Amino acid sequence: MFFYLSKIFTFLLMPYTQMCIWFLLALMLKSKRWKRTFFILGIVYLFFFSNRFIVNEALLKWEIPPTPIGNLDSSFEVGIVLGGMVNSVREPKDRIYFYRGVDRINHAIQLYKMGIIRKILVSGGSGRMIDNHEKEADNLARYLLMSDVKKEDILVENNSRNTYENALYSTRILKDLDLANKKILVFTSAGHLRRAMLCFEKMNMHVTGFSTDFYGSERSFTPDKLFVPDPSAFSDWQMIVKEIEGLLFYKLAGYI
Questions:
Q1: Which CATH topology does 69-212 take?
Q2: Rounded distance, CA 63 to CA 241, Å?
């Protein structure tokens, strides 16, 4: 039930969703006062959440900065790659279709080939409410094989539907293989790493985070950033709101 409720609330809390609600209320209500109020609120949402400079400032505050590879302590026994980057629905099935989060798996492969991590555990089933397609971790395992990662160095966790289950099921696999007390590196997006680390801490796992897939960029004061609306800013706000909402719901559910 929690899984479905979190999906519904995430949708309702998105700035784009709320902006649409304000405009619909302005259209449907009979009171001129409330029509004007909700219309102005919709306009404010439109300009605030489409401003590239504002959302970039929020991203710079929220995302965990990258870790220079040279600053990593030493080699790690396992690198855990959290899912959220594969489109398992698209046809034909003769290739793997990635979303923008592909840095998660590519950086893990880079560190594997550099000898910094010895094994890669890919974690991810399906985060969809209704889904009968391939599990994401199975696709990622195929990608690792195509990238010349040895089969014996690939571990697969394909049952998880969210970040908490990523941590839960990955921990079980590592404990079964007597690897839970080894040095572990967790790969996920910079905006998501905070919640992921808290979930692993809940499992009494001492892991190191490695942030990837950055949405924020260097601060810029050019007119296009300061004044020109950018529709893509809404998707960046969606990530931030989703993570804040995720932290709140995970705390209420006892996941962190």
A1: Rossmann fold (3.40.50)
A2: 13
